[in-house]
Amino acid sequence: MVPVPDILHGFKDSLRENSLRIKASTGGRAMRALIFILISALIFSVPQLLASDNPAQDHPLNGSRPPGQAGIAQGSSAFDREAAGPEIRVAIGNSSQNTLEHGQVVITAGAGLTVAQSPSRKILATLRGNENLIVSHDRFGFYTRVSRAGRPGPTTLGTFRNPLVIRPLDPMSPLMVTSIVRTSRRIAPAYRGYLELRPSPSTGKLRVINVVPLEEYLKGVVPSEMPFTYGPEALKAQAVAARSYAIYSLNAADSSGYDVTDSTSSQVYSGFRSEQESTNAAVEATSGLVATYDREVIYAVFSANCGGYTENGENIWSDPKSNAFPGTFRPYLRSVPCGEAVANLEAEEGARAFFTGTFAGDNADSKYYRWQVHWTRSQLEQIVNKNLAARYALQEARPFITPAFARGASIGKLLGLKALQRGPSGKILALEVAGSAGAWVIQKEFNIRQILRDPETGAPALSAGMVFDFEYDGSGEITGITARGGGWGHGAGLCQDGAGGMARRGSNFVEILKHYYTGISLGTMPLRLGGETRDARGERAAGNAPGGKEIGRSFVSPTGRGMLVIDNAGLSQLTVQVNDLPPVTVIAVSGQIPGQPPDASPLPEANQLPEANQLPEANRPPEANRPPEAGQLLPAGQASPTGPPQSVSPTMAQSGVTRLDLAGMLKPGLNHIRFLVPAPSGGSARVLVEVE
Fold it and tell me: By three-state DSSP, how is residue 266 classified?
């Protein structure tokens, strides 16, 4: 039921709304009006009385989340929220998605909504389904009005300085932002979760933040990033990649107030109305799974079509801190073929043969696999002059266009285009534009694509994977240029069209992901236990639980097999529960433990010794007759199939990485794992489950 103070808030709002009627009444009319107002206020409060919860009560900024239990509690609401994954904060762009700034925002919901102030839980208004909330922002704060059906003009609620939180009365009824119209479908977008309105750095503007559980967010991402008609395994691969990208972004959260945007600057998110049955099924079938490398969630980038080869990640982006280019080396973002392997695309001759020839590829049936664009010389001169100046003005601290090129400058007569450097995918990393007024070098594929725009549409080049052919007149001057290229997008990481092709050939989503992301594992989001960390906004970091707090995850195991990986930094013990099995206490020991050499410093993961008594898969006995493997996580006292009950708890190293087999504890499909670190605890650990 709704707390009494919140009912009174609604009662007070109704009184305020009708105060003018009181002032207009005299004598007996005033008394009759007052009685009428009291009755109507009570009627409007009934929907709140019938509601099971105060919609503002669970707002994360209110600090109302129940504390973790002292033990591992079945059905714990705190655990259920953690197990479902973290919330993500998505900045919603305007209708054209070219800015995050909004002059006015209009919000409605089919079942009604509440408006509350943050960080307090005070409810300012409750709107019915046919009513619109209208919010604008100026130097005095949020100017808020309500447009009520059947009434002339909006009712002013007031001006409020603190951010506003808008929640649907029915969680199954998404919030619609009718002040936004997406050009692709000409309809207002709708969002799960709730909306938070914050002031923008731009005066008189505001930001719209959709705060939504991660798994529900993904249901609006996958169909926006990959055609929903692609096979189930390709959609599952996209779901895992999108989940990994989102969690990587959560870990890198800054003080901007949001984690990702809803556009291609992060990953496209179109909200509730974009959801499809096939893509929702892919999200649910991979629930909780992310791609990891060295026990960290990867930067899981993807593009529409790589053109035949993906590119090394460092050749696409400069380092975010130093701005150096090539950028950060990521061992999982390596160039791989998307079908038939071809040698030496870094050489001009090899690139020309590749982009003008025919090769078998998983993405070869896409219209973006091979393309060409033609410019007249005068067209390209105008395009280069305009966009070279624009890109130079937008450069970061280190220039990627040299020498300087000011607005209004000109390259003169175009004399040629030359690829100075190519990556292993054949993409141009450095392009020389030569003109009668000088020569300019353009680095980074994004800059190259932004400058060599389409003469008809004005859109950036589809890819930096291209070669050039020139037409000359009788005097030897260039009259026309044709770019012949392949692919669409930056080309690093997962190739979406290639994933569709691999799925059609029979590859499953695990095989697809491991092809495009070199050396990765699949598993749960890593959790930090025993030590508390906070993000740039001062909130507890996702996947973090201090000593004495329970935390867990729900995740899918495709085959029912997996390993619990514990990267320990001084924890003395850890309690683990898998599904409905009895809890197990894992004890830290010194000296040699199963799966590790006697050396005090553990070997790198790739060089780990096999666990004791572990046989090659082909020689292993059937599951029912298999003795427990050394290091296998078994509850204390559980009987071994071939011997007496276990007399000792599983062990982990006091410092280093320990792997414990979860054989017989996981099941194919959805699983649950819970962790509890005793409080106080003198150490910490990172834990995750890797699945097969």
Answer: coil
